[in-house]
Write a structure and sequence with these properties.
The protein has 251 residues and is α+β, with helices and mostly antiparallel strands. It folds into 2 domains: 2-112, Arc Repressor Mutant, subunit A (Orthogonal Bundle); 129-241, SCP2 sterol-binding domain (Nonspecific Lipid-transfer Protein, Chain A, 2-Layer Sandwich). The protein has 11 helices and 9 strands. It has helices spanning 18-24, 36-44, 49-56, 63-69, 75-87, 109-112, 114-125, 139-149, 206-213, 219-225, 234-241; strands at 2-3, 27-28, 91-95, 103-107, 159-166, 169-176, 179-184, 200-204, 228-232. The strands form 3 sheets. A 5-stranded mixed β-sheet has the order 7-6-5-8-9. α7 (114-125) crosses α8 (139-149). The protein is globular, with a radius of gyration of 20 Å. 25% of the residues are buried.
């Protein structure tokens, strides 16, 4: 756990080398416990830290992107969390070449190993009696949830390639005989094959995709109401949406 004694300008994005300076100006309180799990909580247990990591699992993002998707986090807190995670070697700075020519934040290979922990938390948390199902969520959170809710038994012989366009980002989901993969950005194929990669493309808000996949809302109902738009094979999309299973709350 951390207690921040200094402040960072509210509109300022972290500058190069800031993590070292910020860490030196902050008093830290840690668990006095020799367990490695306690040490892990020292590194990523602060509020917002795991959600920042969640939003980076599918690829790097800019400071402004993280601010936009993480509703409720202030620029000051986001700056501090990025500094802490950078110091802990969980995230790294990536300088994009022109024409982008900007800094983004991405997970280190060691930071990427937290995906398994986050997926376990997702599957554990959805069973809480207090969890409010069906609430809005970020596009990355929705895309990542497919990994946690995927039911290989329902898709043992299924091969599907689906693109979901949520919040202006494209997410490409592939099911291949009981395995599932998700990428954000460009589809996992040569550029010449991009146009024909997906069997169907679903345009919808993340919460609509949530209701279609986990709430079992009929696709025809969402299409009729204008909550989504489909390009390509509708039947392939419907079969894809039936490949997930959400565990019921504990008694």
């Amino acid at each position: 756990m951390h207690i921040e004694s200094g402040t960072v300008p509210e509109t300022a994005e972290p500058s190069k080398g800031m993590s070292t300076r910020a860490a030196s100006n902050r008093v830290r309180r840690r668990y006095d416990d020799g367990c490695a799990a306690a040490h892990a909580l020292d590194l990523v247990g602060e509020r917002w830290a795991l959600l920042i990591i969640r939003e980076l699992l599918l690829g790097p993002r800019r400071f402004s992107d993280l601010r936009q998707v993480l509703q409720g986090i202030s620029p000051n807190v986001l700056t501090q969390r990025l500094s802490d995670l950078h110091e802990a070697r969980v995230i790294q700075h990536i300088e994009l070449p022109p024409p982008a020519a900007c800094r983004v934040y991405g997970l280190t290979p060691w930071g990427m190993e937290l995906e398994e922990a986050i997926m376990a938390l997702l599957k554990w948390g959805v069973r809480s009696p207090a969890f409010q199902r069906g609430r809005p969520l970020t596009a990355d959170a929705m895309a990542l949830s497919f990994k946690a809710m995927f039911d290989p038994a329902q898709a043992n012989h299924l091969v599907r390639r689906i693109t979901l366009v949520m919040d202006r980002h494209a997410y490409h989901v592939a099911i291949d005989h009981g395995r599932l993969g998700v990428v954000r950005g460009e589809p996992p194929c040569p550029p010449t094959e991009t146009a024909g990669w997906a069997q169907a493309t679903l345009h919808a808000e993340p919460v609509t995709v949530l209701h279609l996949a986990y709430g079992k809302r009929p696709l025809s109902d969402a299409l009729k109401s204008g909550d989504c738009r489909v390009e390509g094979d509708t039947k392939a999309l419907q079969r894809f949406l039936s490949s997930f299973n959400v565990a019921p709350p504990i008694l």
